[in-house]
Design goal:
The protein has 112 residues and is mostly helical. Helices cover 91% and strands 0% of the residues.
Length: 112
C-alpha cells in the first residue's frame, strides 16, 4: 500500500504544480460553496429549528448553482456564466434593499 501512495506522489510531482492547480481549482469551486452552506445550515439549525425539507432544498439549490457555476466557468459556457451573474446581481439587489430598510428602521428608532 505504501508503494502505491509513493508512486501516486511521484506521478503528481512529475505532472507539475500548474497542472495540479488547474485540476484542483474547479473541484474546490464546486466543493467550497456546498461546504460553507452545510456549515451555516448546521449552525443555524442549532439555534433555530429548521425543517428537513428546508435544509434539503437549501443544499440542493447551492449544489445546483455550484455545478452550473463551475461548468460555466470551466467550459466557457457563456449562457451559464450570464445566468449566474444575473442571479448574483439580483441577490445583491435584495441584500441592498434589506440593508437599507434595516438602516432606515434603526434610524427611526434612534430619533423616537
Amino acid at each position: 500500500m505504501r508503494l502505491f501512495f509513493t508512486i501516486v506522489g511521484f506521478a503528481i510531482a512529475n505532472v507539475g504544480l500548474q497542472s495540479v492547480i488547474q485540476f484542483s481549482v474547479p473541484m474546490l469551486l464546486f466543493l467550497y460553496p456546498i461546504t460553507i452552506a452545510l456549515v451555516l445550515v448546521v449552525i443555524v439549525n442549532k439555534y433555530v429549528a429548521l425543517s428537513k425539507l428546508g435544509m434539503q432544498l437549501t443544499m440542493a439549490v447551492v449544489t445546483l448553482i455550484s455545478i452550473l457555476s463551475v461548468v460555466g466557468s470551466t467550459f466557457k459556457v457563456s449562457a451559464l456564466s450570464a445566468l449566474i451573474a444575473k442571479t448574483s446581481s439580483i441577490s445583491s439587489k435584495f441584500r441592498m434593499v434589506s440593508t437599507s430598510s434595516s438602516l432606515l428602521s434603526n434610524c427611526g428608532s434612534i430619533t423616537e
